[in-house]
């Protein structure tokens, strides 16, 4: 039992009058729908749980200034205080006041507004019992246990750290698609900075400029968290982190040398796009392009200088060791910007958006020859033009499938996004054909393929910039509902739209009418008497998936390899059929021939070489040659991005060879305990993730 001091020894506790009662229940009990004992100044439930007990003010005598109430207070001057708790509260209050004063002095005028960090020591410090109750006077001895303020703060910090690391796992494992823009250790430092028990210790250990850099990283941290929570459908948390990040970015907006601020603005734009503010999002994206332009120019000069140096040992390592790691981040950021450009393409280029989308899909490494195509507008395409564009799209699709299968990336998010973009290109061409060329059956087939892609396990995590193709596919299927096959239905369409609308207000606000229309069609289909089939109880594609799963369990490894080889040869043949149109229309498509030949060589190696060590050695040499060929081709076209991509490809080939070799020698080895942790790919890509995976 806690030790108590009785202020007035002449009055015994047993002589105390019964506690004064309020006429209404407290706010906490009302919200929790609990029975309140209405005891003043705090009810027993709030005292037991450590909650702040607040009673709604009465219209009359709400302030307790009546003569009767004043006399009652004078009659009971006894105050019970826990000595140890009060001393701890007062000491903690003095420390926090000094910490806040020191931090504000060190930040000076450069750090303007304060950011409300959840559960941080500077915003959630509970100092005195007055923060729980309006008054500390009691009329009787209370022996009910309650959580101390320090314990409550620690519990909140633990919860915050746990939830934060979960969203960090989401970003590094899924959303980054294998190429995170930020090192995870940076966010760990920010998290430690937020949840440290004493800001005074931080100020003693670090200089002011370091604190400023840490706040820039904190702004990036908040915006990444906002995007992650938005993808999870947690709008309140997303808005909270977005506002905090926005406030910090305002302090350092003019700092063009900080990549953290540039990256934070990129994530702010993604959040705003999902929230439905497309105009502000586009404005921020244009600002990001302007801010990274100097880095891109420097990167081009550096690439040219390093490749002209005949004595160079390692181009990528030189970039990193020279303190220019920002350039690699800018390279990855520039590649990510194309996702947003495709989303805004039709709005900004209404007459040529299909041509622009084809070039953006190649990250502007290829250009479309409108002269060979014979038209300048993508509206009202004739049959000949549509067939040429379809041939180019099918060639790209073959390359994507071959590349994803070759590197084992079929199940990652980037593969899903690429397939969505390919489907969007097909639908754009089909919807813009003239009346004589339009093919409704092909349109419905592509739309159905899009809906089947929504069953991918990573579909709930797609960005808002990819939602256009899902909306288009659902609109087509709802508009031509009577043309759908009997076994087809709109349940998966509705499920996909519900998932997107729960995450992005953009979908909820702009396409709510589409969701309601599909809900009505689904209801009619379910209750139609002439469609009482298995499909009305179980979606057709779900049945198809289960059948495929059952068959796959009966296959042995040799059968699976044989099917994979057959699928690759199908893609090879498809590319050969479309290659002539591809070369006619797309300038710079020679690189695709190199990729196809390398994949063919890989298939030959895997089917003819049975010894594992010889196989991984042959694959390493093949991919090193591929990287060198990509670099030489990029030099011809003066493409700095292609040169960096070739260097990274060679780095990845060496890393995968060393990893496979280590696994053959010791299947249970730990890469963190080997020399592999010093490898470039491990340090700058794989080690940024929570788990080590290849």
Number of strands: 4
Based on CA inertia axes, which overall geometry fits?
Answer: globular
Please tell me how large the radius of gyration is: 32 Å
Strand order, biggest sheet?
A: 1-2
Helix fraction, binned, reads 55-70%
Q: Average pLDDT across residues?
A: 75
Our count of helices gives 29
Distance between the termini: 57 Å
SS class: mainly alpha
Largest sheet composition:
2 strands, antiparallel
Beta fraction of the residues? under 5%
Model regions low in confidence, pLDDT < 50 over at least 5 residues: 1-17, 60-67, 72-89, 99-144, 197-205, 529-560, 687-694
Keywords: Metal-binding, Nucleus, Transcription, Transcription regulation
InterPro entries: TF_fung, Zn2-C6_fun-type_DNA-bd_sf, Zn2Cys6_DnaBD
Subcellular location: Nucleus
Organism: Naegleria fowleri
């Amino acid at each position: 039992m806690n030790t108590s001091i009785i202020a007035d020894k002449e009055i015994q506790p047993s002589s105390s009058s019964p506690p004064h009662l309020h006429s209404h229940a407290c706010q906490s009990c009302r919200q929790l729908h609990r029975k309140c004992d209405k005891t003043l100044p705090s009810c027993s439930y709030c005292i037991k749980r450590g909650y702040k007990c607040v009673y709604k003010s009465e219209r009359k005598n709400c302030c307790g200034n009546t003569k009767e109430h004043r006399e009652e207070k004078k009659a009971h001057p006894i105050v019970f205080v826990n000595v140890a708790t009060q001393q701890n509260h007062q000491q903690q209050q003095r420390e926090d006041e000094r910490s806040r004063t020191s931090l504000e002095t060190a930040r000076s005028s450069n750090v303007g507004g304060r950011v409300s960090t959840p559960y941080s020591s500077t915003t959630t410090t509970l100092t005195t019992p007055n923060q729980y109750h309006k008054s500390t006077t009691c009329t009787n001895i209370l022996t009910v246990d309650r959580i101390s303020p320090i314990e409550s703060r620690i519990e909140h910090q633990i919860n915050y750290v746990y939830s934060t690391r979960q969203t960090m796992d989401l970003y590094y494992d899924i959303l980054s698609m294998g190429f995170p823009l930020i090192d995870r250790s940076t966010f760990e430092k920010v998290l430690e900075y937020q949840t440290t028990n004493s800001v005074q210790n931080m100020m003693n250990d670090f200089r002011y400029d370091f604190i400023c850099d840490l706040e820039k990283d904190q702004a990036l941290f908040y915006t990444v968290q906002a995007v992650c929570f938005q993808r999870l459908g947690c709008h309140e948390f997303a808005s909270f982190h977005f506002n905090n990040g926005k406030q910090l970015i305002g302090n350092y907006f003019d700092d063009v040398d900080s990549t953290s601020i540039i990256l934070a603005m990129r994530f702010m734009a993604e959040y705003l796009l999902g929230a439905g503010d497309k105009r502000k999002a586009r404005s921020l994206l244009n600002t990001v392009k302007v801010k990274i332009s100097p880095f891109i120019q420097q990167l081009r000069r550096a690439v040219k200088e390093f490749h002209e140096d005949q004595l160079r040992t390692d181009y990528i390592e030189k970039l990193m060791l020279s303190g220019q790691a920002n350039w690699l981040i800018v390279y990855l950021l520039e590649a990510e910007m194309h996702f947003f450009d495709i989303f805004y393409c039709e709005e900004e280029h209404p007459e040529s958006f299909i041509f622009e989308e084809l070039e953006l899909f190649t990250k502007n490494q290829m250009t479309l020859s409108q002269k060979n195509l014979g038209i300048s507008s993508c509206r009202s395409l004739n049959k000949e033009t549509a067939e040429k564009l379809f041939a180019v799209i099918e060639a790209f699709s073959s390359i994507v499938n071959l590349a994803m299968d070759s590197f084992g990336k079929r199940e990652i998010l980037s593969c899903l996004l690429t397939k969505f973009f390919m489907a969007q290109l097909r639908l754009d061409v089909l919807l813009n054909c003239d009346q004589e060329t339009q093919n409704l059956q092909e349109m419905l087939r592509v739309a159905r393929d899009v809906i089947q892609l929504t069953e991918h396990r990573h579909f709930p995590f797609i960005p808002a910039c990819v939602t256009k193709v899902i909306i288009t596919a659902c609109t087509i299927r709802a508009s031509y509902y009577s043309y759908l096959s009997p076994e087809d239905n709109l349940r998966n369409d509705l499920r996909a739209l519900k998932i997107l609308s729960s995450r992005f207000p953009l979908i909820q606000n702009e396409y709510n009418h589409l969701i309601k229309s599909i809900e009505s069609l689904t209801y009619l289909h379910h209750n139609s008497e002439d469609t009482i089939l298995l499909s009305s109880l179980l979606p057709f594609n779900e049945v198809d998936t289960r059948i495929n799963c059952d068959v796959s369990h009966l296959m042995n490894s040799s059968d699976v390899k044989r099917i994979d080889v057959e699928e690759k040869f199908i893609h090879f043949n498809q590319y050969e059929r479309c290659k002539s149109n591809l070369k006619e229309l797309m300038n710079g498509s020679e690189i695709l021939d190199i990729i196809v030949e390398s994949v063919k060589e890989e298939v030959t190696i895997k089917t003819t070489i049975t010894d594992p060590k010889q196989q991984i050695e042959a694959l390493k040499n093949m991919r090193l040659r591929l990287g060198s060929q990509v670099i030489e081709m990029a030099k011809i076209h003066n493409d700095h991005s292609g040169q960096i991509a070739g260097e990274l490809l060679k780095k990845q080939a060496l890393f995968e060879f060393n990893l496979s070799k280590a696994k053959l020698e010791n299947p249970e080895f730990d890469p963190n305990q080997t020399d592999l942790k010093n490898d470039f790919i491990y340090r700058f890509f794989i080690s940024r993730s929570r788990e080590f995976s290849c």
